[in-house]
Amino acid sequence: MAVAAAAREVVEAVPKALLIAGEWRSATGGGRFAVEDPATGEALCEVADATSSDALQALAAAADAQASWARSAPNERAEILWRAFERLRARADELALLMTLEMGKPLAESRAEILYAAEFFRWFSGEALRLDGYLKRSGDARSRILVAREPVGPCLFVTPWNFPTAMGTRKIGPAIAAGCTMVWKPARLTPLSALALAELLSECGLPAGVLNVVTASSASAVTEPLLRDPRLRKLSFTGSTEVGRQLMAAAGQRILRVSLELGGNAPFVVFDDADFEAAIEGAVLAKMRNIGEACTAANRFLVAEPLAEKFARALAERLRGLRLGHGSDPKVRVGPLIDEQQRTKVRDLVDDAVARGARVLVGGRAPEGPGYFYEPTVLYPVPEGARLLSEEIFGPVAPIRAFASEEQAIAEANASEYGLVAYVYTRDLDRARRVCEQLEFGMIGLNQGLVSNAGAPFGGIKQSGVGREGGNEGVREYLETKYVALAAP
Fold first, then answer.
1. What is the number of domains present in the chain?
2. Which of 185, 243, 259, 358 could form a Cys-Cys staple with 236, CB 3.0–4.6 A?
């Protein structure tokens, strides 16, 4: 009863409207859509359903606020971000429960995401003070070269449902630091975390119109008119490669600055000299974080032949002990998948692998009852050609294959159109160097199953996207370079 009462309280406390020019407004026409608890399939509440007219009003507010926000003092931006960092941490428990209710992940993971999300505000509060240009003499000494960094301008953010707060702060933080205004379209399935974050930023002193939030059941109704509007100057999207291609093509019509963090197919490579227990711990983290619904999730496990059977059985034993259930239960380690469509996809991928000869060591089914649950699953061996070796699983399924040589491991790891993240376990320093140099991925976890860090440049290569978020590189995505040639005295 206490959890149910707390759940009602946190849901009721969140604004259910659009945030435009500092005001909470109903959608044009009064449209609303339901937000569901994926652990029960029941509606939590309804929020405003933005139209294209609402989206354009949000962009107008951002455009109107851009000039004054660009002139604001770096200290002001840094202080707003620092206040938001402190307030997010102070409200971590309440915001974690809200996230668990709409997204499904266990409370401990939701709380960890809130703290991770806050780190982007802390990091970029410092970056706001380091937007350096420079002055130097030209090579022929006839002039001075003055280089300044200026904000790109109004930005459109389209964020996913799997990390509804962190994917917001990872974009909002550098935009605030750089002096850019924003229109944010959060995922239809998890709008409450975004609305709560927007309210928190307003409380921290973010001026009206700098951040505008439009929740909508149709992403295209919001994004298409904005991408055509000459007032928009940048798009930042996190989501599937398929949608990313479409948005990039639309953004190309107006030569918008684009940042895309897209799909992944992460290999988890374990060599025969690896610390076995550390590799198992890393595998559980890399696979089961966020119920496997992460672009950084280990998607393919490639294990040296002498260890493969032992590794598969050890991982199966670890996953067998993870309790499924509603994420608000502190004993639960595995929550539901986000919706029935995602569960069906996971089930189809497992069924395809089994039909081709894969052996199920644990899991492999969707339990009876309400919610969109799927059991943690280990498959070994998995034959070549199984769809889940080439498609992003986005669920708690670990397919394992054995390899005979370092060259084979590298070749299989790179045999993907994606290049977001890879994981490598070895105690041989020379091998680590060789393998990391040959892997075609933007990020590599060496003897660890987690790469995400606010101070690191997050992003991939190939079909996994363009640009970087976080780290020193993150704020550069929101800055234009202006050069002035000064006549020498």
1. 2
2. 259
